[in-house]
Amino acid sequence: MNEVRERLAILCGQVARHPEMREAIAAAGAETQLAQLLDAVAADGPPDQVQLLELLDKIEDRCSHWGLVGVTTSLRQYTALPQGFSASTPDEPVTWTCPLRRCSRAVFADEVSEPPSCAAAGLPMVATRVL
Description:
Blueprint: H1 2-17, H2 20-27, H3 31-42, H4 49-66, E1 95-97, E2 106-108, E3 126-128
Antiparallel strand pairs: 1-2, 1-3
Helix pairs in contact: 1-4, 3-4
C-alpha cells in the first residue's frame, strides 16, 4: 500500500530529525499509537497494512486536534533528479532510504550533516547513489 509507505516516510523523517516530535505526539494523546506503529514496522515479517493505516490516521487525527498538523501527511512532492545528474565522486551517497524497506522516506545528502537513522528500528538508513 503506497499510501502507508509514504505516510510512514513522513512520520519517520519527522521523528528522526526532531527528537521533540515524540514528546509532541505524546502530548497530543497519541503516544500509544506511535509506539504500536513503530513496533509493528520494526517487527519481523511484513506488518499489517490496514493496522498501520489505522494507527497513522489516529496519530494524524489526535495531533491535528492538538494543533500539530502534517505529522503523517504532506503536500511536498519530490521529483526525479535532472537527466545527467551524478554525484561528485563515485562513492558519495546521494540519498538514504529506509533500511527496512517499509516506507518511502528518502533523505538527500545535502539535507543532513551525518547519515540519518530509521525512527522505527533505530538502524542507519541505507546509502544509495543515483546513476
